[in-house]
Amino acid sequence: MNDCLCVTDYSKKGSQPCISCVPGKYKSELGNQPCENCPQDTSGISQSSSPASVSSSMCRCAQGSFGPSGGSCVLCQNGKYKSNIELGMCDEFCPLNMTSPMMCKMFIDNRKS
Question: How far apart are CA 44 and CA 74, in angstroms?
Answer without folding.
Answer: 10
